[in-house]
Specification:
single chain; 216 residues; alpha+beta; 7-stranded antiparallel β-sheet; 4-stranded antiparallel β-sheet; 4 helices; 13 strands
Length: 216
């Protein structure tokens, strides 16, 4: 009798652990494909690295390029967490690497590598956030993920304000705009400007820009 009871308790504990590892409905992982053992495999999306020079030093951004696929930017914004932090791009964390110190929207950013997020409030200015936190291994974020992608660094989908807001190095207002020909694929560009470089993000019929310059 005691043995059967112990087996029953062990089974319940195992099922509870397994269910805790499963993505909850509405989470970014709830509808992802799986391998033959039921482990999650993130959908593949194209990645791109854009590079420009500022006073002879390289500035580059690596990001994923998801498609709207019939959705709108407004549809996606409705799914933002309570802190309204948007992990721009797709899959692995979006990152900026600078060989020299930068002036980003008037704020000093030392040379180095930073993860990129956007604060997108329901009303008011959108803000670009650069953070020293490199991201979190997907296997730590979701234990049942397939091992070949478990070490990939993903953005902090588990709560930006709660976990990494203290690691921010800059948060600057972005200038909103519109584009004549909507783009289905999320796009980032670095282009020369009168002040240095203009960082532009565009998706759907909307765009957002931020100035990058070398520190004086």
């Amino acid at each position: 009798m005691h043995f059967r009871y112990a087996v029953f308790i062990l089974s319940i504990t195992f099922m509870a652990t397994l269910m805790a590892q499963q993505p909850q409905p509405g989470s970014p992982f709830s509808n992802l494909p799986r391998d033959s053992q039921g482990r999650i495999l993130p959908r593949e999306i194209p990645r791109e690295t854009i590079t420009a020079t500022l006073n002879g030093k390289a500035v580059s951004i690596n990001y994923g390029r998801p498609s709207l696929e019939g959705r709108t930017v407004e549809d996606l914004l409705k799914k933002l967490p309570q802190d309204r932090m948007w992990r721009i791009g797709g899959n692995q964390v979006t990152s900026l690497t600078a060989e020299a110190d930068l002036d980003v929207g008037g704020q000093n950013v030392p040379a180095g590598k930073y993860s990129i997020y956007v604060y997108a409030p329901e009303s008011g200015d959108w803000q670009l956030a650069l953070n020293k936190d490199p991201g979190i291994e997907l296997g730590k974020l979701l234990p049942i993920v397939s091992p070949e992608v478990a070490r990939e660094l993903w953005p902090r989908l588990d709560g930006y304000d709660k976990n990494i807001k203290g690691s921010e190095v800059a948060r600057v207002v972005m200038k909103p705009g519109s584009i004549g020909k909507p783009t289905d694929i999320f796009t980032m560009r670095l282009a020369p400007s009168s002040r240095g470089l203009l960082l532009t993000m565009s998706w759907g019929d909307r765009s957002w820009t931020t100035e990058l310059d070398a520190t004086r």
